[in-house]
Amino acid sequence: MTQHDSPEAAADTDVIIVGAGPAGLMLAAELRLAGVRPLVLERKQQRRDTPKAGGLGGQILDLLHCRGLLERFEAACTGPHPAPRFPFGGVHLDFTAMADPPLRSLPLPQQQLEGLLDERADELDVEIRRGHEVFGLDQDASGVIVDVRGPDGPYRLTARYVVGCDGARSRVRDLAGIDFPGHTYPEVNRLAQVTLPDTVTVRDDGDLDVPGFGVVRAGFTRTDRGLLGVGSAPGSRAVSVYTIEDETEAEYDDDVPMSLTELQDSIHRVVGAHLPVTETIRLSRFTFKAHQAERYRSGRILLAGDAAHLFPATGVALNAGMLDAVNLAWKLAADLQGWAPTGLLDSYHVERHLAGARTMLHTRAQVALRREHDAAGEALRAVFSELLTDEQALRRMGAFVAGSDIRYPMPGSGHHPLAGSFAADLALRTDHGVTGVAELLHTARPILLDLGGCPALREIAREWGGRVDVHTAKADDRPADALLIRPDAHIAWAAAVAEPTETAGTALREALTHWFGEPETTAP
User: Fold this and answer.
1) With contact defined as beta carbons under 8 Å apart, do 121 and 25 qualify?
2) I need a surface site. Which of 102, 331, 354, 395 has the fewest CB within 10 A?
3) DSSP 8-state secondary structure symbol assigned to residue 395
4) What is the model's pLDDT at position 80?
């Protein structure tokens, strides 16, 4: 990775990404895979060391598998893997009895995640300029002028596109004049992982016996002053502690880390206990906001990640932001390389704004579940918890939170049920051995996967040969005779099992043209 402290050798570039957080770094890597060389500008001199997200979960894990990166990310998780049990608005989605839970996570703190993404950017030769802050934007039909303040003073760059991945207080969003309507909730959330001294007894049921106070129950304890959550693993003196308080007057800077004293004071205000601590593993504080940009694109300026959306619940922001990046990258590359069909880049807003709205829906529902502390609120949580004892309902909620229930809108009508969905990692048998759908997507290129022995469909796809890879394989209980899969692993088209070649061929050609432009060659 090339790091610049001086703008002297600055050159114009196709894409400037503003912000080197998870969304920006993921976008940079995906653009490099698509053959585009972006420039990343990050206002901070060093990577953030203030704890933020404590893990990564949802559909993005399947996408990382499609890039051959999941094992690498799993290997970086040095702490214990938590049970598949996720908080949801004061109740839990408990998948511990499922062999194949619809929602998974990695205990990977954001600092480590950004380190891994930084390494990936380095391997792909992404240029990142740290300590370079964007303070001005001006766009016209051909590009964007970007005013930057670097360590050696202000300078100017031009780019064909700018993508704002610069967080909740996005300067790019403000400069582009994109509205960011929403609501800020008064609750302040404090989350910690700590180890306890021997004077605190961790009972077999997870309850804590705190000297001078008594028992602090495992799970959630609600008082008229807030909420305390406590969780521990059997045999461990490390516990997770979570408090929520309404603080309408207080303002906090996300860049200023929370102290242990602040956490202990919050616990004392909520339940009246002083919790002694031996060591802090993680301390973080956050507030909840529900905001979504009205547009993810304004001309040649686009938004992704927290710059585009803020959700009032934990555990979803990284998933949504990194998936934004994957959706955008191949479409932006197609535009820059001159083969993008009309409307392709606009489909980024259509698809990811839809996904953001779905995430906003369930996170706002979590607000309603957790904020009411009276008998009616307790009844609501009890009823919701009872519904979650049904496996079908629990699976549906897991897919909802993971983002795997998204079906992007497809053009035309009469689509196969798989169209618009994320491609499952089918086990495949080929002439070259055993593989899977995820492995075929390591290069981030579109693929036509022939599962039913359909040479006519393969010939059609080869007219797009420079843009679409063609594979033939066999799969047990194949879900379709053929699948057209986009670089973001979503299915653009599918042929039903035993569908006549004539109708399948016509529909395939329409889908190829819609997503990947006019053919490069014409079949004889």
Assistant:
1) yes
2) 354
3) H
4) 65
According to DSSP, residue 246 is labeled E
DSSP bridge pairs for 105: 57
pTM exceeds 0.85, yes or no: yes
Secondary structure (3-state) at 495: strand
3-state secondary structure 285-335: EEEEEEEECCCCEECCEEECHHHCEECCCCCCHHHHHHHHHHHHHHHHHHH
Tokens of 192: 């910690």
Asked if 332 contacts 36 with a C-beta cutoff of 8 angstroms, the reply is: yes
Tokens at 254, concatenated: 């996300």
CA angle at 242 for the pair 237 and 243, rounded to the nearest 5°:
135
Provide CB contacts within 8 A for 450, sequence distance 6+: 457, 458, 470, 471, 472, 473, 481, 482
| pLDDT at residue 47 tops 90 | no
Residues written for the chain: 524
Q: Please, are residues 329 and 31 in contact by the beta-carbon 8 Å criterion?
A: yes
Q: What is the rounded CA–CA span in Å between residue 89 and residue 316?
A: 13
Tell me how crowded residue 421 is: count the other CB atoms within 10 A of its CB: 18
Q: Find the angle CA(15)-CA(19)-CA(21) to the nearest 5 degrees.
A: 120
Residue 235's pLDDT band (cuts 50, 70, 90): confident
> Is residue 202's pLDDT more than 50?
yes
Beta carbons of 56 and 419 less than 8 angstroms apart: no
Q: Taking the mean position of all CA atoms in its chain, how far away is CA 140?
A: 31
* Cβ-based neighbour number of residue 81 at 10 Å: 12
State both tokens at 231. Answer: 């969780």
